Structure formats: C-alpha cells, structure tokens
Amino acid sequence: MHKLLTSLTFVAASLALSAQPYGYVTNYAGNSVSVVNAATNAIVGSPINVGPNPSFVAFTPDGKHAYVTNTNAAASPGGVSVIDTTTNTVIATIPVGDQPQGVAISPDGTKAWVIDFGYQNGPGISIIDTATNTVTSTITSGLGAPFAATFSPDGARAYVTDLALGKVLVFDTATNTIVASPSVVFATAVAVTPDGKHLYVTSETSNGFFVIDTSTNTVTAGPISTGTGSSADGVVITPDGSKAFVVNDGNATVSVIDTATNTVSTTIGVGACPANGAFSPDGSKLFITNFCSGTVSVINPATNTAIATITGLSQPLGVGFQAPSQSQQQTPAQMVSALITKLSDPTLGLTAGQISSFTDKLNNALVSIQAGLNKQSINQLNAFLNSVQTSLKTGKISATAAATLTSAANQIIAVL
Fold first, then answer.
1. What separation in angstroms does the CA of 33 have from each of 19, 68, 148, 340, 369?
2. Buried b (16+ CB within 10 A) or exposed e, 323-335
C-alpha cells in the first residue's frame, strides 16, 4: 500500500526573495504535521496533531491555512484537517470521502479539491469551499482510483491522475466535468509547468514519466525512463520551469529532468522510499520526504546535490510550503534591492569589482522600475543576466553563484 500513498500534489507558492517560509511535513505514522524552517533546515516546535494517517498538504495562496488529507487507512471515511498557520492549530476537520489522498487549492484560493481514492467505498472528488470549510459538491462520475491533482495557473482546469483508469482526467472547473482524458498507464503524480503549457506525470509501473501538451491534452513524450525499478512516484517543477525533479520510490533517488529536452540530466541519491517533494518559495531548496527513513532530504537545485538531512519524523509523506502572506510579498523594487544586497553574500564568492559591476546594472533597473518603465527595466535585467552568463562562461563566477543570481533576476522579470 505504501506506493499508493506516496505521490505528489505540487504546491504552488509565491516568489519572494527575502521570505523564509515554513514547510509542513505530514507524519503518516505519527498522525501529525511537523513544521520545518526553510532557512535553517530544522524542525520548529512540536508536531501539530491532525487526523489518522495524514498524507498530503496544500496551502491557500495567502499562506494562512494548510489543508491536510487524513487517509485513515484502517477505516473510512477520511477527513481534512485545516491548520491556521499563524497559530499552528487545527481550526476545522472536514469529513470527506473514502481515503482522501491528494489535495490541491485553486489559484484564487476559494476551493480545495480533495481526491478520495475510494479504496473501500468508492472513489470521489470532494470540493471544499475554503471560506466556510464545507464540502459544496462531490464528483463521482467517470472515476476509477483518482489519486493526485493540480490546477492550471488560471484555475480553468483541474488535472487529476487516476491509477485504475490509467489516465489524467482534465476537468473544466466551471462545470466540474471531464473534458479530456489523455492516457498515462498507472498515472500517479502530476505537476504543471509555470506557464501552464505542459504537465509532467509520473508512472510507477513504467518506471518513468510522461509529458502532456495542455493545449491539445495529448501525450507528447513518454514513457521516459528514470531507471530500472525506479517506481517513479512524485514530481515537482522548478519555479522557472527549467527542470523537473522526479522522485523515485523504488531506488531511493531523484531524477533531474531538463524540460527543454525532456532528458534525465543527473540523478541524486536521497533516503529510503522517497515519496514527495516541494520547493521553498524562492526555489533555492527542494525538500524530499523519505517515507521509510523517517527523514527529509534537502537538495540544492542549482548544483543538483543533497545538502542536508532533516531527522526526527515519522514516515514523512507529504510536504508543502507556506507562501508568504500579502504583507510579506515584495514589490519588484524591493526584490531588486534584495538582490543587490545578496551580491555581497560571501557564499557567492564575488569579487569587489564584480559586485560593483552587477550593482550598477541592477541600479539601472531599479531606477526604471521606480519610474514605472517596466519594459526598460526588463531589458536592463536581461543585460544583467547576460553579464552573469558571460562571467560564468569565462570562469569568473561559480555555477552556484550564476544559478542563484539568474533565478532571482528571472523571478523579478516574471513579476514585471
């Protein structure tokens, strides 16, 4: 049953350079949720008690509430615990269908789609109104064994994997009806690229993943192998969309996928039975739950290396990150200022001359932003990016420094 409990619902989060949000990790055996500080890679406080066998977690866009599915493997039905992230207390428990697994929050934050696996009493999708924390509708038609879900960036479509049907069910969220169902054998986890153009879907039995074009809802690539016996399980995509990370339950690895070519560029070793993954909102760290090891591996996606291990967990399964609240989110001008400050970080290894040169380019962009000249500021930020890439190619800065600066600048451009 473990493999049926170790998939991923990708959690979208706001991008803020200075934010140090908290990650929430479900303890399947502990009936609790542990809170992790993304900056220190350390567990904060005591676990939050939730329902039996918590599996997955998703946050409202403002980061104020977390929705945790409690699978309740020994009985039915399951439930959803709603956590107030300000106080880290459960403020509501919502009855849903049979053995809830995946959960996804609509981009506008008004609805939570809870995927009821239906192991004992039949499958369903419970749709929760997040304002009242009540189930307002339930979908039961056309389902086999639904498992995980995500939304298109505009919220017009919901994508639900179905293990039994071997399909990704595409729902029109205005009518809650299925409008397409591309085939993916034993479709397990699903993640959407930031531009909404492609889905990455894992298949445990295929030991790999598939790619779906969302404009036509057709499979354009796959199965692409992540290794013999990998049992590809979870999948998560970098905030800039350049990489997908596939979590391989079968061989305790994470495969790094170049989304431009859909090829495996490298493989990272993690703990036993890795299950799920989530990025910190700034994209600088990837957190992987290791179900059998009772740990979380922390990966630097710029270098594709594991940099830390968080211990003290009880069959960790789901993980998601709290997006910064609206008061914490930065304006483009604040983001540029934060990047200028970041240049002096000793870990980047920049010389005084490089810091001065990069600062001049960013100051030009900052002046344009403050004048409301967004197009001009984007051009100036691109000039900064070109300078970074030139410095990397000539060996004047490290790959890690280049990746950090490039990611930060791209986040600013995305906001503009």
1. 21, 9, 19, 36, 41
2. bbbeebbbebbbb
Do 149 and 104 contact (CB within 8 A), yes or no?
yes
CA angle 242, 244, 248 (to 5 degrees): 160
Report the candidate in 95, 80, 86 with the shortest Cα–Cα distance to residue 50: 80
Contact at 8 Å (CB) between 408 and 398?
A: no
CA distance 229 to 412: 40
Residue 269, pLDDT above cutoff 80: yes
Q: What is the pLDDT of residues 83-104, one digit of tens each?
A: 999 889 999 999 998 899 999 9
The half-sphere exposure of 415 on its side-chain side, counting CA atoms within 13 A, is 21
Give which of 146, 190, 182 is closest to 164, Cα–Cα.
146
Q: Phi/psi at 21 (nearest 5 deg)? A: -75, 175
Residue 165, phi then psi, degrees to nearest 5: -80, -20
Of 66, 39, 57, 42, the C-alpha closest to 101 is 57
What is the length of the chain? 416
Which residue has 């979870």 as its token pair?
A: 234
Q: In whole angstroms, give the CA distance from residue 134 to residue 126.
A: 10
Q: Using CA atoms, how far apart are residues 55 and 395, in angstroms rounded to an integer?
A: 45
Write phi, then psi, for 173 (nearest 5 degrees).
-75, -10
**Residues sharing a CB contact under 8 Å with residue 22, sequence separation 6 or more, in sequence order:** 35, 36, 37, 38, 44, 85, 321, 322
Q: Are strands 253-258 and 124-129 parallel, antiparallel or unpaired?
A: unpaired
Letter string b/e over residues 182-194, b meaning 16 or more CB atoms within 10 A of that residue's CB: bebbbbbbbbbbe
Neighbours of 352 (CB within 10 A): 8
Domain 2-321, CATH 2.130.10.10 — does that match? yes
The mean per-residue pLDDT over the stretch 391-412 comes to 87
Distance CA 240, CA 211 (A): 17
Q: Read off the pLDDT of residues 43-91 as tens digits, 9 standing for 90 and up.
A: 988 999 999 999 999 999 888 899 999 998 677 667 999 999 988 999 9
What crossing angle do the helices spanning 399-415 and 332-342 adopt, rounded to 10°? 170
